[in-house]
Prior knowledge:
about 140 residues; 10 strands
Amino acid sequence: MIMRKFAFVVLALLPPLAGTPTSAQPAPDITTLAVAPGAGGANVSRQVELGGRDLFYVSGQALQAMTVTVASANNTASFEVYAPGTLIYRGYTGAYTFTGNTLPNAGPNSHAALWEGVLPQNGLYLIVVGATTDNASYQMTVTLQ
Length: 145
């Protein structure tokens, strides 16, 4: 008898739960750039809206030199570079939150348009391009040595 009451309670709750909106958002589209060391690098031309983000992965090796540049009219685009293992969350408003370490001088407050440095570890590095003051058309180049 207890089992029947339990099943009834569970079934009675299913319809309201099925119609409850959630804050989960679909996983973001992340483009993986193929960057051959020593070659011309990877070049991307895109447009990002103010408040939006373009996400890219670049596979790098520890002690490998990487250069990232972003060019845009009136410097309206900048980027951040996150170390491997960074987690990406998307809230109910659609805004991204990143939980992980950024590379030196390539964090959210750096407003980087150029970054050159040596990668500290193997893995997928996350490059996040955003518009700073207005919608931005930009060209990004990533090279590895």
